[in-house]
From TrEMBL:
Organism name: Clostridium autoethanogenum
Coiled-coil positions: none
Protein name: Metal-dependent hydrolase
A matching Pfam family: YdjM
Keyword annotations: Hydrolase, Membrane, Transmembrane, Transmembrane helix
Top-rank taxon, per record: Bacteria
InterPro entries for the chain: YdjM-like (IPR007404)
Amino acid sequence: MKGKTHAEMGIVTFLSVYNVLPGKFNYIGLLIVAFSSILPDVDHPKSIINKYILPFRNKTSKIMVYSSLGIGLLWYDYLYTNAPIIKAIGISFIIIAVSSHRNGLTHSLMGMILFSFIIGYLGNMYNVHYLVYYFMIGYGMHLLCDMVTNRGVPLFYPFKNKKFKLPLTYNTNSKIGCVIEDFLMIFGLLFTIYKLPIIFCK
Ligand SMILES: [Zn+2]
């Protein structure tokens, strides 16, 4: 599934459920949902996030950049901070460096827990306790949406490599796949436009 379709699906879910969330509707929440909806594909050198991070969008550059960031942070933590949050972020970078697309931790429940822990911790540090809920909506929707595609996701990685998918799936590279994603985009945009007055008039 394309990055923009993921972002759109995350936002549609957020706009459907924000009323029952602790932080209700707010723009930080909206940004967090959009970000976490595309975050799992950081394991692909050509994904949206990597467009802004990698100097060259290939596998070698992805491994080099993320492993240097990870090792740098762990080294900094060892010398100066000794803080669990810095360790967790450093380890995450190394995991991103070694994960191949859709086969590793970023597309698993373990990955979702690890990243949620980091966001939850940062949220508590800055007194925005509800951030983690928004984060989990975006991230969870990404995994669910990828389960509708024929490649599936390794939900229980690193314990099990089996790829999970829903009974009905489509091939993202096929013609019908493109039509489905275009349809989802149009539906998402219409739904967002329909929701706008409700958000602004409350
Ligand atoms: Zn994905």
